[in-house]
């Protein structure tokens, strides 16, 4: 579980307005922070299969959001991909 400070720091570069918490780019940034945190957890706890399933669900959700973003706003999609260092 990531903290409030981590969420704020991850979403700050992608906010459209100061109270933006639900735009697609912000959601992708927050999910990326959660994925990074869970990956570190799973590196230390190799037998935690429940968290591994949760990680796969989060990765799938981020993938769907990125697909939506690439169809609706290609410039924003390229910005998100480059700033978060995601492959594709």
Short overview:
This protein is mainly α.
Classify the beta-strand content into a percent band.
under 5%
Question: If you average the pLDDT, what whole number results?
Answer: 93
Structural shape: globular
N/C terminus separation:
26 Å
**Radius of gyration, rounded?**
13 Å
SSE run: HHHH
> SS-based structural class?
mainly alpha
| Relative helix content | over 70%
Low-confidence stretches: none
Explain the overall architecture.
The chain is mainly alpha-helical and 88 residues long. It is 72% helix and 0% strand. It has 4 helices and no strands. The chain has helices at residues 4-11, 24-44, 49-72, 74-83. α2 packs antiparallel against α3 (49-72) and α3 (49-72) runs antiparallel to α4. The longest helix has 24 residues, at 49-72. It is globular, with a radius of gyration of 13 Å. The two termini are 26 Å apart. The mean pLDDT is 93.
Topology:
Layout lengths: L3 H8 L12 H21 L4 H24 L1 H10 L5
Helix pairs in contact: 1-2, 2-3, 3-4
Descriptive tags:
single chain, 88 residues, mainly alpha, 4 helices
